[in-house]
Every structure is written in structure tokens, then in C-alpha cells.
Amino acid sequence: MPDLSLTNISKTYIDKEVIKKADLIVEEGDKIGLIGTNGAGKTTLFKIILGEISYDGGEIFKKKDLSMGYLEQQLNLELKGTVYENCLEVFNHLIKMEKDLSELTKKISENPESLDLLNSYAHLLEKFNERGGYSYPSKIRGTLIGLGFTEDEFSKEIKKLSGGEKARVALAKLLLTDSSLLLLDEPTNHLDIGAISWLEKFLKDYKGSLILISHDRYFLNNVVNKIVLLDHGVSHSYRGNYDTYSSQRKKDLELLKKQYENQQKEIKRQEEIIKRYLSLGRDRFIRQGKSRQKLLDQMKKLDKPLEEKKGKISFSTQIESGKEVLKIKDLSKFFGDRKIFENLSANVYKKDVVGLIGSNGVGKSTLFKIITGKIPQDSGEFIIGTNVKIAYFDQEMENLNYENTVIDEIWDAYPLLNHFQIRSYLAQFLFVGDDIFKIISDLSGGERARLSLLKIMLSKANFLLLDEPTNHLDIDSKEILEDAIKLYEGTILTISHDRYFLNKVCSKIFAMSGDGIDEYLGNYDYYLEKTEKEEEEEVYISKTEIQKKKKEDQKNRREKKILNDKKKKLEEEIKKLEKDLSTVDEKLVNNKTYDDFSLISSLSKEREGLEKSIENLYEEWFSLDEKS
Description:
Layout: E1 4-13, E2 16-26, E3 31-35, H1 42-50, E4 57-62, E5 68-71, H2 83-88, H3 92-110, H4 115-130, H5 136-146, H6 163-176, E6 181-185, H7 193-205, E7 209-213, H8 217-223, E8 226-231, E9 234-239, H9 242-280, H10 283-298, E10 324-335, E11 338-349, E12 353-357, H11 364-371, E13 379-384, E14 390-393, H12 406-413, H13 419-428, H14 445-459, E15 463-467, H15 475-487, E16 491-495, H16 499-505, E17 508-513, E18 516-520, H17 524-532, H18 543-588, H19 597-627
Parallel strand pairs: 3-7, 3-8, 5-6, 6-7, 12-16, 12-17, 14-15, 15-16
Antiparallel strand pairs: 1-2, 1-4, 8-9, 10-11, 10-13, 17-18
Helix pairs in contact: 3-4, 3-19, 5-6, 9-10, 18-19
């Protein structure tokens, strides 16, 4: 029996049919990627599944005990307390059980003859252990660290967090809940590459089912086993990951197109025959003509395959730059006492397409703002090469005047263009009809991104600085941008956490940390391969450095061995005490113990002491683990 099934679901808003016919089956353990262009109805379908909005037609079946967790793309968070406290709320039921167990232990020690107390304790203890027991602190810690929080940030007040950090807290809370079906709407939006990789592993290992809305093709490839495409209100299901879907979808569209064209040819041929019969004027031929017309009218006509409107982006340059486009040497930036980065050095050459990656907060966008002259560096220098003209795509899109209309935004930037030229350019970026008179503040994130890219295209710059250019784009728009970058004759430095995009367009990867930039001469997969095999790479160092490194390694190994021995000893002690605790619990819930009141009192006190000892040993173990 499936966890969830949707059959012939339809939804209309006033005069707009958002969903015509959506079918979806979620088997137990399914990981489904729900894709489609922006506005295709994906989030609407989620809200129908959740029961937040009604549907006009079709049927929905949900398994009786199905519990659903939902992460919205647009969060409206009003969270109080700290990061850790918010995650702790997920386990309020366990915390209450823990307190109740402690109270019952005290009551049993005071009233050991009570069979009701003993039965309550046994029942509650069994329930507590079934639901994870004492493991919830480590689950919270692992999830928060996996999503990019440091332990120092666990105590940060929610109200002091950025929007992206709040979104990560909301995601952490959702992942910690015990839901049998997760609905995730763009969960990777506020994550860096490291956190996305952690989330991939988490979701792959997740025992429940999952429906995921995402434009991240690399993420979809690594997580899902089924793709459901919403196209013009109709769902299409494909087994496999995104690449499998992409390949099969192209074949399906080609087949549909061929079938439609063949049928149209046959219809035209029959119409010509009918016309010829009817024109002869004889009863026999007229009867044959009418008979053929009747058969033609009864023929089931194939719908013409709908092709999504696709824009066309083409970046061109006005002048050719020199060979050296950008030289960064020992660049540093601080905000007050807080170091953003220091000692950055790197070179970008003509026709390079460089992907700049690094964890959130490492200063990638800050570096772009220094290069474009928006903020000063604190030390070091950067040199812009000869004949280099820069165009900058800011992920916040601050280069747009939000009070302008779409057409005025382009006209203000390029006053020499005439009305026809501007409308033609806007049409290439899917701004047609009344769209060109929309106020920019009313546009979606994807529409603003397309408008910003158009301004860059018209600049004819030969060096593009692109800060997360794919963030608000749907998959079709990303592919259009990738095709344009491949044909571009200039140089590109792009910040991105979109690994599929980095693989498709980049010839180099700059991995940025707070203390420098490491260069990799290939795309993202090449970078991944090199970093995973870093210990196997040959390192050229002097004899003196070899001896020094050997001594340091020996010292580190000794210290690590001492720590590991201490940890192992602690683990053995914990294991022994946990076994003792289990033995005490077994005795406490044993019917034969009920009549021996002094034994019950003694066992209760012994249990309390064992719990305290185990807790202290765990704290000591965690302290050693952090040092190792």
C-alpha cells in the first residue's frame, strides 16, 4: 500500500488553470523530485497534499498513520530562544519522559511497595527507549553541525540570525522530527556546498519517504529515485534520477512530435482524398467521401506537443582584454576585529571560466565587492588587466531600481536603444506583452535575475563577475545560461553552490578559505576528486621540512594514541555501566522483586547513581573527542 497517492488532481484560481491533471504515487521509502518551471504549480500541489488549500477535482489517498513534515520555500519565522533550544523543542516528549522517569525513581525509593509505581516505571522506560531515549542531544548536535552551524552558534538568539540562518534552523527542526513523509520546497537555497553534501547523505539514509521541489540538478541526481515533472498543469513520472529523466524526456518529446507530425500528414492526405471524391459529383464517390469523413471525424486527434517558452541569452564583448584579466595579491579584509579573509592570492586569465567556492561567511561576495570598488580592502592589492571591462551580477540584485518598470530599467541603463530594440531584447528574456510594464518590486526572484542578466548582456563587458547567478532560476533558465556561457568569448569569475552548473561551465575552481585560495584546473568533479585524494598527492618539500614534519607527526600520533586510549577506556566504562543499568532496570520491572521493598529502594538508588556516572563519563568522552 502506498504512503500517498494523487489521481487526476486539478486546481483553478479564478480563470487560471494551475493544475489540469496531476497523478502521483509515493511508495514507502520513495525519494521523489518534483520539478517544473517557476509557476508550474509545484508549491500549490504541496499545499493540496497538506490540506492547506482545496482542489477542484480528483482523489487523494493517504495512509492512515501518515505523518508529514513540511519545509516552505518562503519562511515566516517568529522563533524565540536560541538555536539549540528551538531544536530541543522537537524532543519535548522525550524530555518530559526523562523527567517523569526521574520522578518515578524518587517515588519508588520513598515508596518501594507500590506496584502501580513499578508498573508505570517499566511501561514508561520501555516507551522512552523505543523512541531514542538519551540519544537526542547527539542528534541535535550532529544535525546543526551538518547544516553549517558551529557549536559556538548553538547559543545564538534566533532573533539575531540572518534569514538564511533561520531557514537552516527550520530545516534542522524538520529533519529531527519523526515524520514518515517529508515535503521539502527548495531545501538547499541557504546552504553552502558542505551543508548540501551533508543533507544529501542524510536524505539518502532517511528511512521515510520524501517529495522534493528543487532546481539543484546535482542534488536531485544524488538523492531521488523518481522524477515527477509538472508541465502545463499535467504530471509526467520517470523512474531514476535527474540525468535519467532528462535523457528519457528528450526521447519522449521527439517521439510525441513525430507521432503528431505523422498524424497531421495522414489527416491532410485523407482530407485531400475526401475533397477529391466529393468534387466528382457522383453518388458512389460522394458516399465514399462521406464515409471517409466520418472515419476522420472519429479519429482520436493527438494534441500538439507544447513547447515551453525559452529565452535566448547571448553574451558578447565589445573589446578584447589583455591576457592577464585579474591579479590578486595578499588581499585581506576585516570588519572591526573580525577577520573575513587574509593573504588571498590568485590570477584570472583571458577566457577563464572560474568557479569560486567556499563555506558561507568566508568572504566570497566581499571579495567581489572589493574588486568592483564598492568597499576597500585592508591590505594587499588587486590589479585589473588592460582593456578589462567588468559587469557584476549581484545575488541581492541591488543594481535594479525596484521602483522602475521593466522597460524603464533597461531604457535608463541604455538610453541610446530605441523602443523596438528594447522590446526585442526583453522578449528574448521572456518579458512580453504587459510584462514589460510590471514594476520590478512586483517581479519574482527568477524574473529579477533574468532582468539583471539582460543588463549584463547589453553591457558587452569582457569580464563577468557573477554572484550566485542560478539562485532564482528554474532548470530551463539555468540551461539557457549555461549554453550562453559556453559561447562567451570573455572571462568569467562566478560564485556558486550549484555543483551541476560548476561542472557544466567551469574550467577552473578557486576553493576559498579565510587564509587563502587553492586553485584546481578543472570543473567541480575534478576538484572533488583531487580533494578526496589529497593525501595521495606528491608534495615537494625540503629535507629539513621532512624531518620537522616527521617529528610533528610522531608527536601528534603519540598524543592521538593517548587520547584514543583514554576514550577507549571511557567507552569500556560506559559500556559496563550501561550494562549494569540495564540489569538494574530488568530487576526493577521483574515481578519477583515487587515483594522485596528494601531491594526496590536499593535498586532505585543504584539506578540514579549509575545514570549520573554515565552522564559524567559521556561529558568527559565528548571533551576528549573534540581534542582529537
